[in-house]
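INFO batch 0412 | record 1 of 1 | parsing
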Amino acid sequence: MGALDLARWQFAITTVYHFLFVPITLGSVWFVVGFQTAWFRTGNVKYLKLTKFFGKLFLINFAMGVVTGIVQEFQFGMNWSDYSRFVGDVFGAPLAMEGLLAFFLESTFLGLWIFGWDRLPKRVHLATIWAAAVGTLLSAFFILAANAWMQHPVGYEINPDTGRAVLNNIGAVLFQNTSLIAFVHTISASFLVAGAGVAAIGAWFLMKGRQVDVFRPAVKAGAWVILAAAVVVSVTGDMDAKIMVQQQPMKMAAAEALYETSSNAPFSILSIGDVAGDQATALIEVPGLTSFMATGSFDGTVQGINDLQAQYTQTYGPGNYVPYVPVTYWGFRLMIGLGFIAVLYALWALWRFRGDRAPQGRAFSIVSNVIVLGPLLAISAGWIFTEMGRQPWIVFGEQKTADAVSPLVTPVEVWISLIGFTLVYAVLAVIELRLLLKYIRAGAPEEISDTPFEDSENGSANRMHFAY
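INFO prediction complete | emitting tokens
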């Protein structure tokens, strides 16, 4: 493989690995916010125990996300310098905002939350985790805005002297419909991931008969969040599909492996054969569903891959403008199917644990142990579909991926960094899993003070520490 292929593999590996931590962080911090707010309002110590327990898991995941995310920005200079040179004036703006505003907001207030348990007044300490959670949303917004610009570049012009993209409207970059819908879709999917994790962990404790009174609210909260998030994911996904048809019709055609322009285009739930060569046979399909997703009408016309290839060739010049169809086709279905499985689990959990029930059952126990992988893989498949479906463009309509790689980097140099990062990430994965399993098995703190804060009325300080 040449430097281009190796650089693509390296970015894919590091990005997908990093993205495993992103939705867990985005969703789980709000569970911590919710449990601490419930404790603040009710004074019930079980919510404090849940805050401490899930807060610890959140911090482990947050730290891993920060470490793995730093590598992403280094790669822009290492392997993709021509891309950085071309779009740096535009792409760098939202990333700078993310670093200077969002990341400092979340990291600063997260530090205050960690070290302020027995030092800050109760209300102020609650405000710190709220501020940190808002910071995570802002961080996601700026990063998704930068990515949305790659999908649909707006708010820029090309400098005729330098050939570089120059920012002329930051508002258009940040608030175009592509970025806004992607933000809501991604955040709601992250809540679905975190909800599955919280519900599954709580169910494990209930099935073991451990700390039942503490973890029953976690199971129900996680399950209800899954259901609510699934509704938002479905609505925003439909909106995103219609925007995608307008801006990147080839991506929608590749998602269905639709080679010929069709009206009343069906959606194949399961196919066999070679979708890359239009040789697949649909085993299960829903008539008109692709047309509905694309146009809002079951009789709508959806452009096919062959017509779009001819159109792009005329517009952009000779070349292959078809993404790798098997990845887009199956990635789209994994995103939907695995997310739907999480919804079924939420309904199952609410039924099994209704009232004060704590039933036993091997099947439910096994599913609870692995269910978090479903929505996590679903959101990862959706991200892969989004990025692979844009190919061969790195910036749609402006720069191809093949033209973005660093001109002087050699295959040997990329091999070295690729192997190095992969080995480091493998070690980090082991550390992450060991830490999470260790603290999950330990459970919530048994003995805990419910007044760990400074008494703001008389100024005295309670220095009782938690088993944190």
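INFO post-check: The beta strands are 156-158, 165-167, 262-263, 267-272, 281-286, 301-302, 393-395, 399-400.
INFO record closed
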